[in-house]
Amino acid sequence: MRELVIGIDSGTQSTKALVVDANNGKVLGEGAKAHRLIGGLPAGAKEQNPADWIDATQAGIRAALKQARANAGEVRAIGVSGQQHGFVPLDKKGAVIRPAKLWCDTSTAAECDEIMAKLGGLKGSVKELGNAVLPGFTAGKILWLKRHEPKNFRRLATVMLPHDYLNFWLTGNAVMEYGDASGTALLNVRTRKWSKKTLKAIDAGLAAKLPKLISSDQVAGTLQAATARRLGLHTDVLVSAGGGDNMMGAIGTGNTRPGVVTASFGTSGTIYACAGKPVVDPKGEIAAFCDSTNRWLPLLCTMNVTVATELIRKDFKWTHAQYEAAARKAPAGSDGLLLLPYLEGERTPNVPDGTGVYFGVRAGTFTEKHFARATMEGVTLGMNYGLRRLEKLGVKPTQIRATGGGANSKLWRQIMADVFNAQVVTLKVGEGAAYGAALQALWSLRNHQGDNVSIEEITDRFVKLNTRETAEPNADNVAVYREVQALQDDLSKSLRKPFAKHRALVSGQR
Questions:
Q1: Which one-letter DSSP state was computed for residue 117?
Q2: Which residues, other chains included, contact 245 with Cβ-Cβ below 8 Å and sequence gap of 6+?
Q3: List of residues 6+ apart from 146 with CB closer than 8 A
Q4: Distance between CA atoms of 364 and 418, rounded to whole angstroms?
Q5: Which of 66, 127, 150, 345 is found 20 to 30 A from 373 (Cα to Cα)?
Q6: DSSP label of 294
Q7: CA dihedral (114, 116, 117, 121) positive or negative
Q8: What per-residue confidence (pLDDT) applies to 509?
Q9: Residue 233 half-sphere exposure toward CB, CA atoms < 13 A
Q10: What are the 10-residue block averages of pLDDT along the chain, 510 residues in total?
């Protein structure tokens, strides 16, 4: 009988499931279901209903199992990847109190400032946590609930992240793994313990509302009976610790030892590396996360990647192929048209009030091809802002492993190589987070069976590069983008105060 593992990636736009053969790492079945943001919310607010993730997970798993022609007895383990930082508040009965505020919610800037002030500002926060308290992180969302919805806060019994909530649905157990927990801005990443000082800055009773912390190689539990029935599986299926989408993406791209760097081009953009010790940025721009292999994951995050390209694509009513064909007609640097891609605020750099700016618009650049390419370039340059910061902290890539929707574009991969000045490769399994979740589940399964295998052994064996899609940097384009990068940096710094004034003006009009 085959041994199968399932990897789940519950993201902002959809939940995907992969059925993977535990003996050879091949993907045998895939399933997915989309879910949407809640509409009509105030500026900066981004929320979803956790029930939608459960429905999408069930649909994705059943579709993947059907495609794999799998029977219940073959499935041995499940791993869950979830969008980081989201706040899922549960009452004492385990029911969701209100919709989850997501990673891309920037409405908690004031609460984050308040927490940071109590910790001694940026310097104090980095000393206490290893990280700044940014609007994307969970800590500010908890204080926001206390400030803006006190009745709901009084009902709060358990704080969960999106992947924790899916693990809770699968197993009935409330636990939180170190990697995802490090993205809450409640955990000291050096000690892997909750920061009492930070918890106190939010609420004296918060410590009692946090789940038990577990390491990456522990299991969250086994399938509870009700969920097993919904999925058509047995109750002896193991559920691994799981983790945040970036932590699972690291595993799925083979980023399990120092020296490898992964770039994810999805709704948001992330670049991260495996490290044997905490990599703490005194400026707080690079997140000093733990990973989901019991190491650390220095990470930069930009909030606007395919957010920007999809706006252009849909506005011009293009398919993805038509978008790329249009962008290919413009030269590197787009003849001076440049995007500051802060359409929904920004995290790296920390500009929560930022707005998008196209600079260099004139008759010659007011064309479809220029806007198409400039948008690709602008978001990539935005990610490179953080990559250069990573390099200053000692993480110097020679190869970038690209994943996410943007990595499917040949032109975009070349732009990445030229902007980053590094070789860009892709993986044979493009769904890095879901595949990583499956491989972590396999790791847990093998250890549970007494094999004592390392996660590196698993990723070395199963994660394969798609060598036909490798992009090498073009020296001429590298020089062009170096100049454009300097311009983007200067514009970003000079416009940050006007961004804030503009947001205040718009809010006042409302």
A1: H
A2: 9, 11, 81, 82, 83, 84, 264, 433
A3: 153, 202, 203
A4: 24
A5: 345
A6: S
A7: negative
A8: 45
A9: 28
A10: 95 95 97 95 95 98 98 97 97 98 93 97 96 94 98 98 98 97 97 97 98 95 98 98 95 89 88 91 91 94 91 96 97 97 84 88 97 97 91 85 90 97 91 94 95 94 94 97 96 75 51
487 within 8 A of 360, measured Cβ to Cβ: no
By C-alpha distance, which of 292, 238, 259, 233 is closest to 394? 259
The rounded distance, in Å, linking the Cα atoms of 144 and 193 is 23
| Catalytic center residues | 245
Place of tokens 């400030």: 147
Q: What is the pLDDT, as a whole number, of residue 351?
A: 82
Question: Could you tell me if 160 and 186 are in contact, meaning their C-beta atoms sit under 8 angstroms apart?
Answer: no
Six token digits for residue 360: 């260099």
User: Helices 475-509 and 410-420 sit at what angle, rounded to 10 degrees?
Assistant: 100
Rounded to the nearest 10 degrees, the angle between the axes of helix 368-392 and helix 320-328 is 90
Q: What secondary structure letter does DSSP report for 13?
A: S
Q: What's this model's pTM, rounded to 2 decimal places?
A: 0.86
Are 267 and 103 in contact by the 8 Å Cβ rule? The answer is no
Cα–Cα distances in Å, from 301 out to 76, 137, 415, 424? 34, 11, 19, 18
